[in-house]
Amino acid sequence: MKKVVDVIIIGGGPSGLNAALVLGRARKDVVVIDDGRPRNKVTRETHGFLTRDGATPSEFRQIAKEQILAYPSVHIMEDTAAAVTGTEGSFEVTTAEGQVVIGRKLLFAVGKKDQPLDIPGLSEVYGKSAFVCPYCDGWELRDQSLGIIVSGDRAVHMAKIISGWTNRFTICTNGPDGLTDEQREELKLHQVPVMDSPIQSIESEDGMVRQIVLEDGNKVECTGIFFAPKLVIGSDLAQKLGCEVTESGTVIVDEFAKTSVPGVFSSGDAASEMYQAITAASLGALAAVSMNSELNAEAWNNAGKL
Length: 306
Ligand SMILES: Cc1cc2nc3c(=O)[nH]c(=O)nc-3n(C[C@H](O)[C@H](O)[C@H](O)COP(=O)(O)OP(=O)(O)OC[C@H]3O[C@@H](n4cnc5c(N)ncnc54)[C@H](O)[C@@H]3O)c2cc1C
Description:
The chain is an alpha/beta fold and about 300 residues long. It is built from eight helices and 17 strands. Strands 1, 2, 3, 4, 5, 6 and 17 form a seven-stranded mixed sheet that branches. Helix 1 (about 15-25) runs parallel beside helix 2 (about 55-70) and helix 1 (about 15-25) runs parallel beside helix 8. The longest helix is centred in the C-terminal third of the chain and has 28 residues, at about 275-305. The radius of gyration is 22 Å and the shape is elongated. The chain binds flavin-adenine dinucleotide.
């Protein structure tokens, strides 16, 4: 008969790994299934994570795995979770390589991934001088001339946020600006140039942005870019299992990381729109505590029935 582990964690980024650490220390049998496609793989450095500021994403994972594997009840499988069936107490995960793992609880820490970047030249600079989150990379681009590719309400929001790092930036809406007259006035008042021509290409050298070339012939000289990619969840398995998701695909969880399906939890980017490694890790820790409480309560109640 196949062994039933306490928790199967799908996804071994900061969220899934922190959940594994907490559960390993709580003496739970855990299997982490991870296929090594973190969203921040393109970056050279991860910032804003206390004690790991400036670590490369691979260094971060390496240290995390070394620390977790000190706890003998945690196992990490390099594989893709391809299908999930079952209900609370007995979830069965089949991997792409044909392995089957059965677990009492299930954690989806599958992250999010970018949809293909459809601006010519953007993939060459992504993660080197074009970024998605000013809290992650704004410090490195402080006081520089930036191009901010964003439109509509988010343009005003981003202008306010970016102005904390530099006052030299141009909003490129890459087509119709989607702004109201008041929003245009507001940006004008703060002397933020707005260019609404579609972007023809991004020119760069060794990954460093030089200029954004617009279809109307204008060029925006800049040394960095922030943009908002369209994101999709790292795996649709949670949804297939019946977990409710938002319109944008984020798994809906309560304050204890529980999804709408009993015994199924979700954490990190998959279940939040904060998109910071430390937040993802902390949500993983929260999910671990929540699952561990349930497992201990179930064992306690069952023991009482003997
Ligand atoms: C360009 C860029 C720069 C960033 N810079 C920073 C920064 O400086 N500081 C910061 O705090 N944050 C940064 N972030 C955000 C940070 O990367 C994420 O918030 C964080 O990685 C989320 O952690 P996670 O564990 O939820 O997901 P991820 O780190 O994305 O991990 C999810 C894991 O699940 C795996 N997976 C998915 N589906 C399956 C499946 N079916 N089977 C097996 N495995 C699966 C994936 O392979 C992946 O390894 C950056 C993001 C980007 C895109």
